[in-house]
Design brief:
The protein has helices spanning 17-34, 54-63, 78-83, 85-93, 138-153; strands spanning 12-15, 38-42, 69-74, 98-102, 113-116, 121-126, 131-135, 156-157. The chain is α+β, with helices and mostly antiparallel strands. Strands 1-7-6-5-2-3-4-8 form an eight-stranded mixed β-sheet, sandwiched between helices. Strand 2, helix 2 and strand 3 form a beta-alpha-beta unit. It starts with 11 loop residues before the first strand and ends in a 9-residue tail after the last strand.
Length: 166
């Protein structure tokens, strides 16, 4: 249940990497605070996301509980492994909640860049200039969900939490 004193989630248009990071972190904080059961993160490579920051990992740790679902969609995970060591470690710990998928063959310019939940979503319309929108509006959440669902249908499992030899 949301606390009446909890800060309102940002909504409207955002511009620039700093605001994108700030709003993304606000969304993850709300997910942890309000107990959102489902999160989907999508980006071509997550290179410019703040996934390796301590504060982001703390929010994900607070969010992670049995029964929760975290879906991650990328063209590839090389940059995640290279840039976000804390996230990689967190992902290993919570492998049973995290479903990582890859959608290869999609132009990086056309790849969706978004955080989606049933309560709020954030979507970059232009990843190069870091421009997009965020908010709780049902129409935009559904539009983002449909965009991500289409990419997920074409995706395959990827970014395993461990490397097992046979």
């Amino acid at each position: 249940m949301a606390d009446a004193a909890a800060p309102a989630l940002p909504q409207g248009r955002f511009e620039g990497r700093a605001q994108f990071h700030q709003w993304l972190c606000a969304g993850l904080q709300a997910a942890a605070r309000d107990g959102w059961a489902e999160l989907t993160l999508a980006d071509a490579d997550f290179a410019d996301w703040p996934l390796g920051e301590r504060a982001v990992i703390a929010e994900l740790q607070a969010w992670a509980r049995p029964g929760r679902r975290f879906v991650m969609l990328a063209a590839g995970y090389e940059e995640v492994r290279r840039r976000h060591a804390r996230f990689v470690q967190w992902r290993t710990q919570w492998d049973h909640l995290v479903n990582c998928r890859a959608c290869k063959g999609v132009d990086r310019q056309d790849f969706p860049s978004a955080l989606w939940s049933p309560h709020w979503s954030l979507r970059r319309l232009d990843a190069v200039h870091c421009v997009g929108w965020a908010g709780p509006e049902a129409a935009r959440r559904v539009q983002t969900q449909e965009l991500l669902a289409e990419s997920l249908r074409r995706s395959t499992p990827a970014f395993s939490a461990s490397v097992l030899g046979l």
